[in-house]
Design brief:
It catalyses: D-glyceraldehyde 3-phosphate = dihydroxyacetone phosphate. It is an enzyme of class 5 (isomerase). GO terms for molecular function: triose-phosphate isomerase activity. Its EC number is 5.3.1.1. The chain is globular and about 45 Å long. The protein has one domain (7-253): TIM Barrel. An eight-stranded parallel β-barrel has the order 1-2-3-4-5-6-7-8, surrounded by five helices. The protein is built from 13 helices and eight strands. The chain starts with 6 loop residues before the first strand and ends with a helix. It has 257 residues and is an alpha/beta fold. α1 runs parallel beside α3, α1 (18-31) packs across α13 and α8 crosses α10. α12 (225-229) links the parallel β7 (213-217) and β8. The structure holds phosphoenolpyruvate (PEP).
Length: 257
């Protein structure tokens, strides 16, 4: 089995202005050591307006923290007022682009076709998509959580070739656990993450399935991250609220301590 480097990514959502972003990344840089970066990949996902500030700090101080955007347009340029394209993000050296976060699906009507177009847009410009999938509460209560999540996986990766799919990051984020304080049990997380890996093997092959990093997201904190990370098919965490506290995020990155 491939050794997958865990990816801890902080989704700041619509928080921290560009000055606060600098202070926050500085705190992370002070808190994290070379040993941390040798064991774990660390990324921040700030609002678009912060990306230039974060880039300047990361480049200027040669920080090992990666960064990316919380969304990406399906289009590369043109009359799409308010959207931010892959070329604009690539120019800022973004490593990642989140696609299909449940808040985008819920408040902006993003469906599988849009998510699929955004995944492809990310790859066109050298960005790694973090494709978010996961079920709402009613679907989980009805026992349809695995089928629902796998249908989102199929839709998001439709016609994405194996060489690209091998590098995608999948974030399993049960909607009922996001921002609610209601964390999935480690067994819940493992059940769905294992099913995602199984589907990747069906869609592609074992090599791709083994290579893909699958994060869990939903009310991750320093107090619950170790048990979730102990699951064999969980390769990292997408952290919302708790990533806004630099000390707490450092503790999450150090989940092995
Ligand atoms: C998220 O925004 O992706 C998320 C998981 O949020 P939280 O950690 O606050 O539940």
């Amino acid at each position: 089995m491939a050794a997958r480097t865990p990816l801890m990514a902080g989704n700041w959502k619509m928080n921290l202005n560009h000055l606060e972003a600098i202070a926050h990344v500085q705190k992370l840089a002070f808190g994290l050591s070379d040993k941390d970066f040798a064991e774990v990949e660390v990324a921040v996902l700030p609002p678009f307006t912060d990306l230039r500030s974060v880039q300047t700090l990361v480049d200027g101080d040669k920080l090992k923290i990666k960064y990316g955007a919380q969304d990406i347009s399906a289009h590369d340029s043109g009359a799409y007022t308010g959207e931010i394209s892959g070329p604009l993000l690539a120019k800022l050296n973004c490593a990642y682009a989140v696609v299909g976060h449940s808040e985008r699906r819920q408040y902006h009507g993003e469906d599988e076709a849009i998510c699929n177009a955004k995944v492809k847009a990310a790859y066109r410009h050298g960005l790694t998509p973090i494709l978010c999938i996961g079920e709402p509460l009613d679907v989980r209560k009805a026992g349809g959580h695995v089928a629902h999540t796998l249908a989102q996986l199929d839709g998001g990766l439709k016609d994405v070739p194996a060489e690209q799919a091998a590098t995608v990051v999948i974030a399993y984020e049960p909607v009922w656990a996001i921002g609610t304080g209601e964390v999935a049990t480690p067994d819940d997380a493992q059940e769905v993450c294992a099913a995602i890996r199984g589907r990747l093997a069906e869609l592609y092959d074992d090599t791709v399935a083994d290579a893909v990093r699958i994060q869990y997201g939903g009310s991750v904190k320093s107090g619950n991250v170790a048990a979730i990370m102990a699951q064999p098919d969980v390769d990292g965490a997408l952290v919302g609220g708790a990533s806004l506290d630099a000390e707490e995020f450092v503790k999450i990155v150090r989940f092995r301590d």
